[in-house]
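Posted in: Structural Biology > Protein-Ligand Complexes

Title: Requesting predicted complex, magnesium ion in pocket

I'd be grateful if someone could produce the 3D structure tokens for the following input. Sequence and ligand are given below.
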Amino acid sequence: MKHPKILIADDESAITTGLAAILEDAGYGVDVVADGQNALDKLVAERYGVVLADLKMPRLDGLGLLRELQQRDIPTECIIITGQATVDSAVQAMQQGAYDYIEKPLNAEKLNRLKALIPKALDKYQVQQKNRELSSKLEGLTHYGELTGQSESMRSVYQVIEAVAPSTASVLILGESGTGKELVARALHSKSDRAKGPFFALNCAALPKEILENELFGHEKGAFTGSTNEKPGAFEMSSGGTIFLDEMAEMPTDIQVKLLRALETRQIRRLGGKKEINVDIRIVAATNKNLQKAIADGELREDLYYRLAVVEIDLPPLRDRADDIQLLANEFLGRFAQQNGKSITGFEDQAWEWIISYHWPGNVRELKNALERAVIMSRGTTISASDLIPRHLRAGGEMPAALTIPVGATAAEARQQLVLRTFASTSGDIGRTAKVLGLSEPEVRNELTALIGGASVAPASRMSIEAGEPPAPPAARAARRSEPASPPARAASKKSTAKKGR
Ligand SMILES: Nc1ncnc2c1ncn2[C@@H]1O[C@H](COP(=O)(O)OP(=O)(O)OP(=O)(O)O)[C@@H](O)[C@H]1O
Ligand SMILES: [Mg+2]
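-- Reply #1 --
Done. Output follows.
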């Protein structure tokens, strides 16, 4: 990759000429100016990775230049060049954000130090540039690829996908069932240079060992009884694209050995074959298992884990993403209403309350299925709690018996969680919730309305939220955002017992 340019700002031409020649020899693009004001003009007009600035210059000195860079939010890294008499000011410059300083005279030793400093300063500049680009690009995003989500945690997932998609690094996606691991894998593929190549998904848990091996590596003619034709495997067929190994922790250990070898050498051998075949693949793997345990139990090879988890993406469970629950619920409502030709415009209060208080063990898949069912069941223009709450839950089953409240939560936050979960466990019965908790009904209602954003929603009123339009009541989001960081998802939540709705 081409280096960003370097600007030298010094009024001593003996220094600038020598330095420019040395840096150009080292392959850098260099511009030279003789005072601070000129330097600033250049830095405003053009992007430089590093400026080497003399501390004492006409018109604008090194410290002044540094201040201007910061005020104008110019990301160029600044290395100060200083005479011995001004070392104190150079130290001050570092405190104000200069990358480093070099003392004159620039003898061979100093020049060597400078030559070592420059690539590091350029690296810092480039990493910061990349991060700036990404966060401004992803700011305010509510969708990414096929993923819907606007929570902080989903936006950081988008940022990681965006950063690693162009590389060939293997990615391991972790998360409970139904959190969107496959959608993340697809986004990694579609945002990469391999997007035009194939995306090949294999579920390692669904296939018996022999078939999985055959699917992955293919076979030569006559490799086993009945193999009358040769067959290329997933590695060959998805060369130039992405292989998605779903439920990767279920892979039999002898296939893990072969996979490890393929990852290391980027070569495979078909079953019954002698020839090494080069493959150009990117591997994305996913699991909802506790991998530390799988490694400890000898089910997953640790060396394979490290190969696959060059980058790890941890998808948070839906119950920890209050912002996304509402966005997704409205989106699914809009989608299924349209598919079923129904004009449903929103949710009744009780339905909303249940949606945001339920713990969603099956995550987005469960929410999606619940909404599809609710839309089909609904006979009015709004979704009611009884359209939504599955019958087995109306009886009050399948609720977590305990609630995890992170240390650091306030008493008010703990109370809110307790009200929410109790409300969900009574299938949305405010009277029973109040009784169980020893609170009054208005107190329970206040806690719930604070969460759905209506400041004082009267019991019988409706929330008029148009289908498909993100409701995102600001108060609800603010209320959730001020919650302390949730405890680690996997550690805190019980293993999902939800049935897959596929
Ligand atoms: N963020 C999201 N936005 C929109 N739809 C989503 C999102 N996450 C999941 N879904 C939907 O939920 C369902 C489950 O998603 P997906 O198959 O990616 O989950 P998973 O984590 O791979 O689950 P499992 O571990 O059970 O394989 C799919 O229908 C998917 O479209
Ligand atoms: Mg999956």
